[in-house]
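Possible regression after last week's pipeline update?

I re-ran a chain I had predicted before the update to compare outputs. Posting the input and the new output here so someone can diff against the archived version. Not blocking, just want to make sure nothing changed silently.
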Amino acid sequence: QVRLIESGGGVVQPGDSVRLSCRASAGTVSRFHVGWLRQAPGHDREPIGVVSWITGNTHYEESMKDRFTLSRDKDDNTLYLQINNLGPEDTAVYYCTASQALSLPLQKLTVDYWGQGTQVTVSS
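New output (post-update):
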């Protein structure tokens, strides 16, 4: 069982940056690909990227490569998502995910575990 707890969301202004955190239960994600996806109101879920916890290899959804950066702290069992130059289109619930198998493109990824989600609202 993998437990994922997100934090770092909130209300931000256009042009701001935000860093979301996802803390995984200790010792459980080493065999997983851990990543983020988001869901905006009235839209389908959108993958952002995943990172292999063991190797650090990272795969991004093509449209997310410019402003989104995934990183991990293996010692702290924490995955981060840095989002720069936020715009209203980034308003969404951001979910941390863990998948046993990597599938590309990321729309085909099967998610085995989900976090509860953290809301990011971009508003002036």
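Follow-up from reviewer: compared with the archived run. The mean pLDDT is 94. Marking as no regression found.
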